[in-house]
Every structure is written in structure tokens, then in C-alpha cells.
Amino acid sequence: MKNLFVVGSLHLDVIVKSPRIPQKDETIIGKSVEYVFGGKGGNQALAADQNGASTFLAGRVGSDSFAKLLIAHLQNSSVDFSALQVGKGASGMSVAIVEESGEYSAAVVSGENLHIDEKSIEVPENTGVLLLQNEINDKVNLEIAKRAKAAGSKIWLNAAPAKRIESNLLSLIDLCIVNRIEAEFYNFSNKEKNENNLTIIKTLGQQGLEIIEPCGNIKKIPAFSVNVVSSHGAGDMFIGALAARYLQGDPIESALKYAQAAAALHISRPENERKEITPKNISDFISSNL
Fold first, then answer.
1. DSSP calls for 46-104
2. Rounded to whole angstroms, what are the CA distances from 246 to 47, 69, 122, 128, 135?
3. What pLDDT is attached to residue 232?
4. Which CATH superfamily is domain 39-93+119-288 in?
5. In this structure, what DSSP letter does residue 199 have?
6. So what's the pLDDT on residue 159?
7. Which residues of the chain have pLDDT under 70?
8. pLDDT digits (tens, 9 = 90+) for 86-98
9. I need a surface site. Which of 4, 35, 71, 236 has the fewest CB within 10 A?
């Protein structure tokens, strides 16, 4: 099995549970607060590791108490994070408010994530997929993508948060993963998809997902129905599980169905139980929903 190499952000997420998301200028009383390992890069690496991928992670933390918590979390996984960089500033962090329905809003402060030194990052041998996101500097994504592509790796971009993708990076991407809001922002033309041989996965929450092929053909896969505890982190679980199954040899549609099931179990459990989700749990869940 080839390796997954994730280059991306690391945040400590401060998650506030609240009856609802407050309006502008409004203060309401929250119910609880949790401090959770996060950042799209870190979350996706851990999700892939949880689902059986041989996972390498490159990112950057600061020299603060948040960094100690982030590193301790990585140490409890099988992820190879020997490429982790440590800066002198503050580690990345985010604040999320999760309402009773499970929906949430969040703000991110990037900190040392914006100072990743791409020159000191080496692509691991036998990398099958390089997984990138938009929470670090574009120049880092571009430089690492060039090296990984030259080494024969596929390049996947979770294009979140939504921002312009430079044409030189777009030309290297094999698979772009976006949610419905991000898809509206990008709205790739047929010419862009064809010229770059770009496949797009558009996730639609309870409406499932769409696979948009370079030729423009669209395939739809329905979602699993579950009771939502919180949707926070569901996209990262989906992407990590997708990469894991793809690298284990699953056809893309089978890998997508597995990833949807992983995300469904993720959103139906409290945060402190999500790390206990196993590939067997996911396979059993799929079998019970045939």
C-alpha cells in the first residue's frame, strides 16, 4: 500500500456548545466548552490513520501550551509527524460554536500555520496521494505539489476555505473536494475540468454527493441517514477515510461510499467517542444499510 502525505494546518479547536448560534451583537449563555485537536491537515491525517492508511504529516505549531496538546495528540496515533516544524509564535487555533441541531460556525486564527517552510519538507518515498487544503500558504501547496507530482503521486486538494486556485496549482490537481458552498464559489468551467483532467467531488450533506468527471458527467451517491449530534469535523473524516480506502485499492465509488459511512458515524457520535470508530464499525454500518 502506498503512503498518504498530508501537508496542512494544525489548530487547537475551542468548541463551545450553545442552544443556538448567536446573532450579530448578541450574547447568549453556552452549555459547555471542549478543547479539541483540529486543523484540516491534522484532522484529515488522523482520520486517514484511523481508517488504515500509512500516513505522513507535515505542518507547523508554535511554542505555546496549545502546541504541547497538539503534539501529544499526534503521539497517540500512528501518524509519522517527523516533518512537524516548530516556530516561535502562537499555534493555530479556532473557535467553533455548535448549536443543539449539530450545525456550527467557526473562526480560525492561523498563527504558525502561515509560516510553514516548504523548502525543508521532503515528500516521503512511495507516496500515492498528496493531500492538501487551503488553510496554509498557496506557495507551500504549489511547491510540494510539484515535487509530489514529479515523484508519481496523485494530488488531492480539499479546496477549503474557498479562495482562488492559481492555474499552475490547478494543473497539478487530480481530485478536488468541495462542499456545496465552496462549489458555488469555484464553479469550474468545462474547459478547466477538461484541460486539467480534473475530477470534482461535491459533498451535499444529507443530499449525498456528486462526482463530476472531467468530461462533465455527473454521478450521484445518496447519503446515509443518521441522527446528528454535531457536524463539526465531518468533512475531514470523510476525506481521510476516502484517501485511506483509495490507497488500499478500492475503486473510487466504493471508497466514496465508505467515506460517507465514516462521516455518518462521525456526526452521530459525541466528540469523545469518535476516535473509537473503526473500519469494522464502518463496514458493519454499510452492511446494515444495504
1. HHHHHTT--EEEE-EE-SSHHHHHHHHHHHTSS-B-TT-EE-SSPPEEEEEEE-TTS-E
2. 13, 30, 23, 9, 23
3. 78
4. Ribokinase (3.40.1190.20)
5. E
6. 97
7. none
8. 999 999 999 989 8
9. 35
